[in-house]
Every structure is written in C-alpha cells, then in structure tokens.
Amino acid sequence: MQYCWNTGDHGPIETPNIIPPESELHNAGVEPICRKYLNLRYEMMPYLYSLVRECTATGMPILRALWLHYPDDPAAVARGDEYLWGRDMLVAPVVEKAASERKLYLPRGVWYDHWTGQKLEGAREITAPVDLATTPLYVRAGAVIPMGPLKQYTEEPDDGSLTVAVYPGANGSFLLYEDDGKTFNFRKGEWMGVQMTWDDARRTLDMQLAPGSRMLGPRRRNVTVNMGDVKKKAIFEGRRLSIRL
Fold first, then answer.
1. Which domain holds residue 109?
2. Angle between the 45-58 and 31-43 helix axes, to the nearest 10 degrees?
3. Is residue 220 part of a domain?
4. What is the pTM for the complete model shown?
5. Tell me: the pLDDT tens digits for 45-102?
6. What is the full DSSP assignment across 25-62?
C-alpha cells in the first residue's frame, strides 16, 4: 500500500495504476490543486503527528473504517467508500472522472463541511457538490483540531504558534503530542502532551499539560482558538488555561 504524500492526498493508493503521471503534476490546472492539499497537510501536521502517537500507543489506526466508531449504525458499517481520518474527520474520496456530485453517508450526530463550515445533521445520506479541486471533508461536532503554521517541509523552523479549531455541538477532547521528531528522547520524558477539552455547555476550551509531559520550546505558545466566526487569542505556558468562546 502506498501513500500519495507528493499530492497531499489523505488516503492510501492501492495500485500504482491510479497514481497520476508526473507530467500531470505540473499541469497548470492540476498544480494548484496539489498545492492546496499539500498546504492543508502541513497545516494539519499537529493533528496528524498526534494521531501517529495514538497509533503507536494504542494500535488505533490513523485511517479508520466507519464501523470502528459507529458499530451500531448499519449504514455506517456497510459503507466502504469513505473513511475516518482519526476520530474526528470524515473523508469521502471522489474516484469518478468529471464527477460533479458525490453521495456519501454521515454517521449520527452533527457534522461540519470543512470547506464551507456548513452544519449538517448526520445519520443520513447526503449529496455533496464536487469538482476536481474538492474532496469532501467533514468534521464531527465536538472535534478539537490543532493546526500549525504553513510550512514547506516538516523541519522548517517556526515560532510554535498553534491554531485550534473547535466544532460546537457536543463535548470533545484531543491530546496534542509533540517531541523532537528525530530521536527516542521521548522515552526519557522529552515530550509534550497538551490535553485540550471542550465543554460545549460552558463554551470553554481547557488546555493543560498531560501527566508525565513537560513544555518543550518555545515555552510560550501563542494559541488562536477558532469556532466559526469567533476567534480568541491566548498564551499557553504549561499552566492550566481556560478559553471561553
């Protein structure tokens, strides 16, 4: 199984026959689309890296069939043409040439269109408009999604700033994980875990260090929390922090 990281694709490619030829990656119509998804991948690296940590610690895969989190939903169990990226994001790949719409199933609960912010009720099939540049991505209510600055490569220096996207409608939590990305020093306690917990009734996001972890540099983290059109800025220094939205 291969992963098309060179185009920013979120999921697996099961056969080389569907990898686009190199000439197409420099197609004037395709190149901006590749850039769009590569940029998204780098911005979501904090989310992805934390999922990798979860996978090593628990065995929970990064890409998950819907039945893994919705085993009592027959429609979700039967759906084999979409998947969850971690617990919180649903991906519905478009594989038909020149498709203008995509039928997909949203499990129970409330979901948000990643691209438009549209709020949708789940437990039903929907028809999403698509084009060559649009892969349907949905985020479940209660999700807390950490995002970083846009980079050109993973080791590009940055100021440690963090953007946290909160999707209201349910309580939720996420453990953000960081280490040096190079060594096994995390086994010696050189890692940072930030437990983020969203209380939907109080409209409050709490952030605190996970037990056994410590602040990694920079020790003052600029945090921007987004919930739709609401935006709050704060500084996280390792002490418990509550951000009301």
1. 61-140
2. 60
3. yes
4. 0.88
5. 999 999 999 999 999 999 999 999 999 999 999 999 999 999 999 999 999 989 999 9
6. GG-TTTHHHHHHHHHHHHHTHHHHHHHHHHHHHH---S
